[in-house]
Design brief:
CATH architecture of one domain: Up-down Bundle
CATH class of one domain: Mainly Alpha
Oligomer: single chain
Structural class: mainly alpha
Number of helices: 46
CATH topology of one domain: Growth Hormone, Chain: A
Length: 989
Amino acid sequence: MELKKHWFALSRSAIPQILGWVNLRPEESERTWLMFAFYTTTSIGLRWAEDGTVALFLGKYGANSLPLIYIAGAAMSAVLSFFYSWLQKILPLRVVIVAIAPCMVLPLLLLRVGLELPDAIITIFMLRLWVDALYIVNDLNTSIAANQLFNIREIKRAYPLVSSGMLVADVISGFSLPLLLQAVGLHNVILVAVPVILLGTPILVYLTNNYQQAFRDTPRRFVEDTISTNRRLKGPLKRYAWQLFAFFGLVQGIGLLIDFQYLSQLDLKFNGQEIASFLGLFGGILGLCELATQWFVSSRVLERLGVFSTAAILPVSVACLLPLFIFGLNLFPISQAQNLFWSLILVKFLDELLRYTFVNSSGPVLFQPIPDSLRSHAQTLSAGIAEASSMGIIGIVILATLWLSHLLGLSKNTILVGETIFFACVCIRLIFALRSRYVDLLVLSAERGQINNTNLDLRTLKYAVIEALQRNGTDSDKRSCIELLSQIDPERVGEVLAPLLPTLSSELQQQSLEVILVGGANPAYLPLVQGLLDDHTSSPEVIALALRYLWLSSTKRELQPLENYLHPEEKPVIRATAAALLLHQGTPKHKLTATKTLRRMLTHQQENERVCAVRALRQAVYLQTLRLNIPNLLQDESLGVRCAVLETIAATHLEEYYSALVQGLYYKSTRRTAIQALVQLEDEALPILLLVATNIYKPEVVRMYSWRAIGQIGTIEAVKTLRLYLEKSWGSTRRNILRTLLKMPKEKTIEYVLDPEGDGLVEKLIEQELATLGQIYAACIDLQRVSMNLESTEPVGQMLDLLQQGLYDLQTDTIERVLLLLKLIYPVENIQAVLSNLRSHNGSHLARGLEILDYTLKLRCKPVLLTVLDQRSIQDKLDSLLELKLLSNQRLEPKDRLRHLLDLPNSLSDWCLACCFYYAQAARIGLKTTQILTSLRHPSCIVREAAIGYLVLVSPRVVSEILPQLQNDPHPLVAAQVQRLMARLEMAH
């Protein structure tokens, strides 16, 4: 019994270590090992069948007939791939994956019977053809099943192990084939291979039933009916699929050219039985090397170098090493034939090693950007049919090469080597093209693509807006067009809108005149605007704007007509506009009359009169005695009047009332107007906004909108101010500044926020945030040791649960700031796609987000960041941060860890800081005096309340001395707490 317990404990500790050696995680292990077992068993049978049929074929036909196999095999494989794709349309995917192997091996038995016929030449040819097609379909079936079972990040770790089943099969079948040949003979190898191939089917049955959520229950034709057009393989997806088609075709073509040259050399050197034995031993030795590479190297290379660098290793090696081997062996005293033989043996060894390790591992990952519902179909076309087509093309190329070499008297081997190197170079170039589309398609699949002004043709857009204004459309559409036109070409907006004024509605006329006046009143449009003034159907707002336009653009101003608009029967907006214009440039008599008019309007009982008068004051340079009315107007019961006063203060630069603009940020009703007014002041408003934004005792929402206002000011000084405080700030303040910066044009942030050398500032801030995360993870681990020994119903356990939840929320806030920092230096749509995928609870979406991040970031801390964002244990995340040396590896006792956390108040949220005091109070942990005193002055009431509660417990004498100083606390919660404590102390005395 004791031995059994020790064995169980040993296995529990050994399994994680073994999984770590092969770079696999526990939650992926069952799926991975089952797929590995399936692929191994089927591959052993296929390898026996292949080596046996190759020996039979070379014995009957010779190596020069291989191109015919390639051409015929292309047609056969293409037909089978189309058949496989067609089956997915009429049957559920799980049925297709399970049934394809039994259906494919039955013809092998029939062909074996055909070998007993007197003339079996055609049978041998068909047998070789069918086994090659079986290989392609089996690899395709395995790849599709793995893509359904694993997400984009899991498959990088799991598929190298799954595909190593082929390598294990190479070893087993390679070393066992000579013995099998002696036991049953060359003709009967197939009879042994077929049942071994079928052994993999029960494993697939178990996988498809146990992981039903990964496989469709309906045929693809029903799924396609529900997919929107933009999700089909059109546009970028279609181009990417064709590039994949070319990539797999080129890789297959390189392998076939090498294989033809390799088998040609074997045909010259050995007979049929010797070829089969050599192939077996060569496959066994190669399989051992492949197995070691695949288990311990491939997945790590794939994770560190990425899928494209890994896939490029094969063509780069072939292009560089093939000529090197041929010329290098000339240095040894061997014949030209021996030189070529050993060169091709080495190249074949290298090709097989890299093909069945790095390329096989990379293949399924390349299909992950394609939507799930279309992936298996695209995989069938791009991988299956591409490889089949490549066989046919390479067969024709080899036949042409043989004919050309014979015709011209050239060496066929030299031409074939040159063709192999050429195809390898084309493949390298194609990999670069694939890489450029990979991340874009991942972002597209996250449905977070955005349009920004960097990819707009402004001239084309302007003409489109003009056409929309001239057409018969709704006013809301035209209003949007006018607003857009004012943004893309504010200086020449009058050229477009002035001729259209007579045809527009009153609301659009008003909007157009306001936009034109912002750009300046141009005398060229005076006749058009005068027409609006003479039109009796024009609205009062249009007449007022036209009056102002005429007055500002005319060089010969006549004041008497303006005075006529001051009569009480005129509409308030017209009367106020005329008075403001007279106040601006009228004679002393006119200014006196205008002042009296505006004063009457400012104190009028009707709200509309007061609003119009206040708005008119914005046009006056000197308010003279009217400014005395502003304090009363700021307290006006009408929201419209108060907002109009704020606009007037900014327009006339009344410095003594700037505090009213800041006060407007406190109230939701006036906040928007106050921000617009402050933005209008530009750099003049920066000092007063900074006083609010950096004051920790101001409400958080007011501080946030103060930073937002600084960002909307957008001057060089404002942007430099944001950069300065971005570096100095922590927590919510840094988050507010980041959100402000991200709303600004990218050009400004690049020029004035980021370092001239690049992204050094952002990387420094990201590492700061990661160091904060490290402190949180260390605290979680240290405190977890305590929670294991506590009941959640105990007071200490309850407070500890609160603290741990506070630390978890702090992790979320810190990661959010990291992603905001990344948006500063990388495409916003990429990081937004990452964010949306990380928020999903779906493992596949999370993996896609991490993949986008992996191919987007170029930071030193990228591996750590990917680990932190992944679903890894807290210990794994902390270990990755320790590797980057962002914090010291120091395990502390829970009480020491708590004190350490309180020494980092800037890094903690208010709630987390309060939870530290709650836990210290429940666990009776002594804290530093400075920590307590600092928290008693904290701007958040929950922290002050928690600090007072802690102090009552640990030092009642000190509490009695400081309570009188705290009884005037501005927050009712803390004030009530202090009153209760003071009453309790009085009763005690």
